[in-house]
Design brief:
It is a single chain. By secondary structure, this protein is α/β, with parallel strands linked by helices. It has 9 helices and 12 strands. Bound molecules: arginine (ARG). Arginine binds next to loops. Arginine (ARG) binds next to loops.
């Protein structure tokens, strides 16, 4: 990199950090933005393309609202990755319900999804993903001290179950409805996982199916415990529109650099107390 582009890159990363510092609306509600450019990539005269990220807070430690600010592993990771991605800058974050992220991407409201989103064949019919940046399984959460201790998805039969709308956790529950194990009326879909956890604590439902790393943070902060873990072997990737091969390769090489230069490991330690998932 020559001196001029080095200074330009410094300036760009400074801007991204400043914007990141003032994201969030305090309530974690949908469709808010701190960015001046709404969706659709914009090329500036410097040749840098500004992209807007979308996420769905309420998924700690990947993305959540803390002191009115959007923070989390995904937020830090994507910002670090874009800093290393040649030709792109991040101009801000928008928040949506998880179940509307793919549509928001497809309609150019955002340019990249960073939301602990599992790479699935079904989603790949609609969007593309970067390389994986995290591996996760699903867990079944129950109330602390509950005598109900499901050891498998089949044990959900006859109980009220919750999951977040549009997630792979919901798909697992849906499969059990489809094969007749669970009654449709026993499934509650929630716009955010924290609401499902509150209903679990209140006794309105008996179990929540949720990604294991996030289940662990609820165990630490709420009156719930992991009954069992289902080995789903999911991989999280950043979601982008199909046919954006420049952005895809820039993000993948950015991800590679962030892994190579130690930033990825630093962020893991920062957001996951034990440094593992
Ligand atoms: N990994 C799961 C999925 O892809 C859940 C992701 C939920 N993410 C969130 N930010 N609420 O469906």
């Amino acid at each position: 990199m020559d001196r001029r582009s080095y200074i330009k890159a410094l300036g760009a990363s400074g801007a991204a950090l400043t914007l990141a510092g003032c994201t969030g609306n305090g309530g974690g509600d949908t469709s808010t933005t701190s960015s001046s450019t709404t969706g659709g990539t914009t090329s500036s005269s410097s040749g840098q393309t500004a992209i807007t990220a979308g996420t769905a807070p309420g998924f700690k430690p990947f993305e959540m609202i803390q002191d009115g600010e959007l923070v989390g592993f995904d937020v830090d990771l994507l910002e670090a990755v874009v800093e290393q991605a040649d030709g792109y800058t991040l101009d801000g974050w928008q928040q949506y319900e998880f179940g509307s992220l793919i549509q928001s991407l497809s309609t150019n409201k955002i340019d990249v999804i960073a939301a602990g989103m599992t790479i699935t064949d079904k989603r790949k019919e609609q969007i593309a993903f970067t390389d994986s940046y995290w591996e996760a399984n699903q867990s079944i959460l129950v109330r602390s001290g509950s005598s109900y201790q499901p050891g498998s998805l089949d044990d959900l039969a006859g109980h009220k179950v919750g999951a977040q709308s549009g997630t792979t956790g919901e798909t697992l529950v849906q499969n059990k409805i489809d094969d007749g194990t669970l009654q449709e009326s026993n499934y509650n879909a929630y716009p955010k996982y924290p609401l499902a956890i509150s209903d679990l604590e209140n006794g309105n439902i008996d179990a929540v199916v949720i990604d294991t790393p996030v289940a662990k943070t609820f165990v630490d902060s709420r009156d719930v415990t992991i009954a069992t873990t289902i080995d789903t072997g999911e991989n999280y990737g950043f979601g982008i529109r199909k046919n954006e091969s420049d952005l895809e390769s820039a993000l993948n090489s950015g991800l590679g650099s962030v892994k190579d230069n130690g930033t990825y490991d630093d962020l893991k330690v920062k957001w996951f107390a034990s440094g593992d998932n």
